Fold:
Amino acid sequence: MKDEAILAGDESVEQALPDDVLLIVPMRGVVLFPQLVLPVSVGRPRSVAAVQEAMKSGRSLGLLLQRDPSVEEPGPPDLYRVGTMATVLRYAADEGAHRLICQGQSRFRVLDFIGGYPFLLARIEHLAVREVHGPEIEARMLTLRDRALEALDLLPQLPEELTRAVRAIDEPGLLADTIAGYLDLTPAEKQEVLELTDLRARLERVQRLLDYRIEVLKLSQTLHQRTQATMDERQREALLREQLRTIQRELGEGSERDAEIRELESRLAACPMPEEAGTQARRELAHLARMPEGAAEYTMARTYLDWLLELPWTRTSETPIDLARAREILDADHYGLERIKTRILEHLAVHRLNPEGKSPILCFVGPPGVGKTSLGQSIARAMDRAFVRVSLGGVHDEAEIRGHRRTYIGAMPGNIIQALRKAGTRDPVFMLDEMDKLDAGFQGDPASALLEVLDPEQNATFRDNYLGVPFDLARVMFIATANVLDAIPGPLRDRMEVIELPGYTETEKVEIARRYLVARQRRATGLGEAQLTLTDAALHRLVGDYTREAGVRNLERLIGAVARHVAVHVAEGDDTPATVDADDLPGILGAPRFENEVAMRTSVPGVATGLAWTPVGGDILFIEASRAEGGGRLILTGQLGEVMKESAQTALSLIKAQAGALGLDPARLAGDDIHIHVPAGAIPKDGPSAGVAIYTALVSLLTGRCVAPDLAMTGEITLRGLVLPVGGIKEKVLAAQRAGIHTVLLPARNRHDWEEIPASARERLTFHWIERVDEAIDLALQDGVPPPAAVAG
Structure:
């Protein structure tokens, strides 16, 4: 509708325009010179109206350059006063786009603008340019033409027609305008040339601009040749960056990359590396200096150098070991564990006398929650060394120990080198946690990779696949931890000195809770020392009725639950100091979770209490036997392993052989089915140490005599009736003490384990050392037969 309105008024407009008035089209960044042809695109309504008026009336257009291209609706103050009158050679409009091809005619100057029209109008005067001829003008024109041809030769892929056109121009003014029109000048520079009506000044100005552009083209060509010589097919993507650095070198300016290389050189000079590592670092730095910054390998090489420069090749902890202080730290951090503390102090004493000696590899083995990891931290404090820990649980890739080779994208050193970088010294206390949880996969066996790490004779030249150079691990004090020693591969176990940490007694747990756990949970819940007090009776009940573990981890959780219960009252405004006694625990934690079921279980014939070893400490094991008429079968239930089944078969065969001595009827014994069951059927059970308990349960069943309710036993039996030694004596005795057992039957050949049993357990329990099963029967079975109701129950 707007264009139609304009066209409807075109006739009156044409009649009103005098000859010295020109239709004006503002130009953004485009300057047209006389006699040159230029494509122009217009889109603003006033410009479109001017173009359509020119096409209808056959008038020329005046092209004026805008001072600021960002102005959308320029007015007279936004336009230069000198422009070019142009004839429209071709005009096309397509979907709102108006394109035209214009040819410049002559220069003009705007005298004033005329308002009241739907387009810009201006009253103008023509700028006459007098062609002056003479030797000076001729010389300037020839020089300008030669320089223009030189510039055209420097431009790549230039059309040959443009060179011929420049050679054919014989008018000085046209030559200057042509060169200025096609030269890559800024719009302001072209406007400056357009406004020069003096021919000599215009030739001189174009000459200076052309000379500058020729120098830029020559320098660009030189830079391109230098850059191209240092590039291959994989580095073409870094062309612009390389050219930028070359320009900076030509200008005498240093780049950030050069500063980075100089920084690496200074760090390398100050880093005391071994000779092989230093040679590799210098070789890698020289390669990095020649590499383009945009290359894919640049970041990988820089990261590798950072690893080499940040590793503690020679940094050590120089603090001498103070044994008295070390003993104080161990005693303050851990209650009991005297033998373990003594072994640690022996190691520290040897290290003090011989600092250059090889450190032994210690392996702490024990159930969860007994303080293996905290012992390592205490050792680090006692030695004033850094402490680092790496968990090996679930590690199934050899590269996590030795690292990945640098040929892989995202390669990194292994956990050993990463932990040493984090420690900052080459002699930290290094804990390899959960050694028994290693797993082998198709990527390799990490346990095999640890063989070199944990061998004092080899780890001085440990070679990580990522570094590619040896690193000395001889000064590192490695401490491994495990729950089960048998799960550690034999060659790896052979390299370590095993120190076993069995479970705690009830007295030790109460003392640990009183010294450490209560205070730690107070801090965790924000309670003050006076706001929460747990009596000894409460602690004893927590240990006896609410936990059944070798360590103290669950005990600490329960103390935390009590602390949170008190914290609720404190947060609600009750500042009364809380003293929690044994009778208060059911109201806070609920009913006791464990009870003494030994007496109930052994109140009938055919039930005996055995002692078992588990990965989380010792435990008691009930053996139940029953008989029924049948075909003389032996039925075993309770998810028993092959070894335990063989022990049951051995016990039954031994009883049949001794039937006369035991007062049993051999005929009935051969005709009845015997069923042996071990409760907790969901838990697999195996091992020979239940042989004595199975034999005792069977004799109790067949003779009708009950086993003493406060007695437990362990030991392997033979067909001759001998009792053989078993393992885990300390853990089993502690389990008996926790369960309320008073008498323990142990193999006589296990007397050497007497010193391992804690003093508190030796004082509270009665021990009998047996060599034959006959002795077990005499000590375990009670005289008399229980009443029928008890038997039936």
Remarks:
- The chain is about 45% helix and 15% strand.
- Residues 306 and 722 are 67 Å apart (CA to CA).
- Residues 1-12, 785-793 have pLDDT under 50 and may be disordered.
